[in-house]
């Protein structure tokens, strides 16, 4: 009994002392770095760049593709940085698509003095809390895939993204629906999630401004399989177009059940529909479905084709929609890093300097997108791509692209 | 306003009946087990889900061998229904043996928790197998009955719009009715049925009258789970796409239906299921019209559950239930 108690007290004390030591140690290094005298201590010429994406779980395919894209860009730049006297290293972290895990990883990244940047995340829900930690440590983050408005709207100095925002996607879809498809009467269905409702509302606002009439704005529940009730309303109102804000599981069923009911008008949705599973669920019914996405087809340009080939050669895998975005995000980050090193007289810059230089990057030409950050960290050249399913095959056909400028 | 509601009424009734039939047969499983053991088998929704997966797997295998094209759809359906209900029936018996029987004399709360545990276990096992075999846990089966039948409701009265029905609707409805009637007959007219009712009334006394209580309970689980599995197949045929989580919401609604009809009462469960399905569909299609857009279709569940609460306040034993007298 006594022994047990002593042991536990001993263990607790050790832990407490350890934590204290860890914290104070961190503080010291931090000041050293901020002082700008080259990050004191040994191995100062190693620069690590972290990636944080889901590498396990349901969206691991997408997460891994971002990591591999980033890895490719980093390895290509290694020789270049070698000349400047620095050794580049990639440290991949697995955020599991889970905010808690993302934040815990971000703490680790922040504590590692050699990390000078982060490429990530896949999910906005993970990026938002994790980026608070990056801001604390002034580590620049470049996101390849987060579309939620809140990611950059919080005005953090370190947070940047190269893809388009949700409040641009909705209106871009509306513009296409009203102007190109000639939809005058539109019925909107959303799945009551933050993503679905936000997108549907942005679409609604955009469509109303362009003079379209909104016949209904109805919700469905995620996890349900029978949407006939809402579709009966659609049937009664006879719209020219149905807009769906939500994900592919419900979207696929909705499309299928709508076509079963004899509703033949075009159906449009956001990047939540952008999955091969949508085609699997809806089958032939998917024809005449449009979707907007922040991810462009990589293989439509020569640079994109070359990238796809390089990627295949290196990893033995086909590219996914966000592979090239991972590559470009890393590219932008390294560009900023390089500028910071040069501005610092070829010495190791501070994280703050790197973050400032990343934000200042102008007209960086990537594989899929050109990048110039505005004052919030959003990419001025971000585009929304519009796809159409002409047959039950994924990926869909690129119809149009809408750019901000 | 009334006109608008009437326009869509034929279609709403048809869609509501299909959904209701699915709710009703799932509700039967809840009600049977509760009637005999006074145990709410929360794993029942997952047995239903497993049935949907087993049925779809069989159909996909048939399609893979090219048998599906060469055999009449009805034969395929009966075959799949029989095999699936045997599989899920045995699964139900196994669950009872492993998770419920050892705890039969434990407090009710403990069996309730095991039931929830079993349901999570089933979800993840099915998900694991589906992902292993298919790479994706959302499964889409081959469509057996995809024909469309138009119903000229407008010829009855010009108030109504025409409705259209998938031919699988009739299959679902007919199979559901056959299952319900057979079950009702079995419980009320056969010797085993009598034994089940006896066990439901008083387990100890029934045991003294040389009823093998363990066997009767196992049989109840077999029948209840077989029905659940068969419903899963019907669901997969009607809606096409299934995932390991369909059992949760549907199980909850079916449970509600069973309570609405009077839990423990088989006819009550059927009635409650169909009533809930029709009500839900009606609410989803008409709430915005009736409330002038204040309430959207997303409030359909609120509507259905509000009615449930009202029923339970004024008739706590459910629509068909008898006031239970505490056994002394």
Automatic annotation (TrEMBL), chain A:
CDD domains: PBP1_ABC_LIVBP-like. It comes from the Bacteria. Residues 47-390 form the Leucine-binding protein domain. One of its GO terms (biological process) is amino acid transport. InterPro entries: Leu-bd (IPR028081), Leu_Ile_Val-bd (IPR000709), Peripla_BP_I (IPR028082). Keywords: Amino-acid transport, Receptor, Signal, Transport. It holds the Pfam family Peripla_BP_6. Residues 1-21 form the signal peptide. Belongs to the leucine-binding protein family. PANTHER family: AMINO ACID BINDING PROTEIN, LEU/ILE/VAL-BINDING ABC TRANSPORTER SUBUNIT. This is Receptor ligand binding region family protein.
From TrEMBL, chain B:
Keywords: Amino-acid transport, Cell inner membrane, Cell membrane, Membrane, Transmembrane, Transmembrane helix, Transport. It is found in: Cell membrane. One of its GO terms (molecular function) is L-leucine transmembrane transporter activity. The chain crosses the membrane at residues 20-40, 47-68, 74-95, 107-130, 168-187, 216-239, 245-263, 270-290, 302-320. One of its GO terms (biological process) is L-isoleucine import across plasma membrane. One of its GO terms (cellular component) is plasma membrane. It is a multi-pass membrane protein. Belongs to the binding-protein-dependent transport system permease family. LivHM subfamily. This is Branched-chain amino acid transport system / permease component family protein. It comes from Anoxybacteroides amylolyticum.
